[in-house]
Each structure stands twice: as structure tokens, then as C-alpha cells.
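Design request, C-alpha cells follow.
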């Protein structure tokens, strides 16, 4: 479900209401949900990767941590955008940063490279993590954690700079706005009914 298991800019298949089949998985493989899964021939993959991974999007995973401490974190990425990006591992609620990596350009969307950084887990047991795209666009093949030592660095909080709401019209275009005042005001809604918003 978008906003819980993942956050993707295009995530809903409305063919049952519009009669038009829309691919919400831009990769057209595995399943048609918001996470853009594509086939890959990278030798270090299971045959699939996440493509079209854009700034602001994230995926949540469940992990079982045996030992708290510092870990080596390997991101397997391909970046054909021509611009560097940034990816983070965050805690489940997106309030703490566990690891951050700069994603360089790799020359194409299918030229894979492993980027290694250090990260940490402050507690053991079952927990959730978010793989969060902070900036740029790139493809992500896998993330691998290797225990290094028992050192647990201080908690690094996520600094919330803005709240983003994506509005998409029936024509498939996203609502955009420029200006500083009166972007959106909500004037009422009822649960179970369509929410009403007024754009000034």
C-alpha cells in the first residue's frame, strides 16, 4: 500500500474506473504496483531491480538484527541520469538516519556499481527500515548489510524540510504550483467520501 509499504509518485491502477489500462509499474514486470520493478541482467541480482527510483520515493523492508552496532552497507546501483544522487537507510518511521550514500553516475541505466558506506543499528530484533531516495534518480538492485563492530554512533535525526502531497488529475498530469501563499486549503471531508480540496 502506498504510504505504508512504499511511497511512489505513480502508484494506482485505475483501469476499473476509467477503462484504460495504465502501467503503474514502469518496468512492466513482476507486478503492476507503484514500485517500478524491471528485469536486469546484472550478475549480482536475482533478475530484477527497482528502476525509476526518484527523489522522495521510498520502500519499507522488515529486517531481523542479530547484533547492534556498525555495519558495512553495500548499495548495488546504476545511474544513467548524468547527475549524482543520494540514498538513505532510515528507521521504519523515517525519523532517524541509519546510513547515507552518495550515488555517482555510472554511465548508463544498466551499468551496475557497488557503493559501500557504513551505517548502524542501535537495537536488535525485528524492525522495519526505509530505503529512501533523497535526491536524483537511479536504479537500485540490492542492499547488503555486513556486521563490522559493536560501536553504535549517536542517533542522527531526519530533518524534515517539507511535506509533499502529489495530486494527479484524470488526464494523468500532476498538479504543479509556484508561489508562496495559499497553495491548498481543505474545506471539509467525510470519511468514506471523496475529499474536497480548494486550490487558491
Amino acid at each position: 500500500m502506498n504510504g505504508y509499504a512504499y511511497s511512489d509518485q505513480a502508484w494506482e491502477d485505475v483501469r476499473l474506473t476509467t477503462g484504460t489500462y495504465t502501467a503503474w509499474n514502469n518496468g512492466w514486470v513482476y507486478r503492476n504496483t507503484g514500485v517500478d520493478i524491471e528485469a536486469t541482467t546484472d550478475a549480482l541480482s536475482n533478475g530484477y531491480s527497482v528502476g525509476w527510483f526518484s527523489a522522495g520515493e521510498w520502500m519499507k523492508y522488515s529486517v531481523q538484527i542479530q547484533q547492534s552496532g556498525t555495519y558495512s552497507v553495500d548499495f548495488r546501483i546504476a545511474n544513467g541520469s548524468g547527475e549524482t544522487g543520494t540514498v538513505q537507510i532510515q528507521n521504519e518511521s523515517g525519523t532517524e538516519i541509519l546510513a547515507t550514500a552518495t550515488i555517482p553516475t555510472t554511465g548508463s541505466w544498466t551499468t551496475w556499481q557497488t557503493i559501500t558506506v557504513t551505517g548502524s543499528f542501535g537495537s536488535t530484533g525485528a524492525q522495519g527500515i526505509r530505503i529512501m531516495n533523497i535526491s536524483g534518480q537511479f536504479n537500485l538492485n540490492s542492499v547488503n548489510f555486513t556486521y563490522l563492530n559493536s560501536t553504535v554512533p549517536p542517533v542522527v535525526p531526519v530533518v524534515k524540510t517539507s511535506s509533499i502531497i502529489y495530486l494527479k488529475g484524470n488526464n494523468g498530469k500532476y498538479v504543479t504550483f509556484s508561489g508562496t501563499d495559499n497553495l491548498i486549503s481543505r474545506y471539509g471531508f467525510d470519511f468514506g467520501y471523496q475529499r474536497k480540496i480548494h486550490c487558491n
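Comment from the thread starter after seeing the answer: thanks! The chain has one helix and 13 strands.
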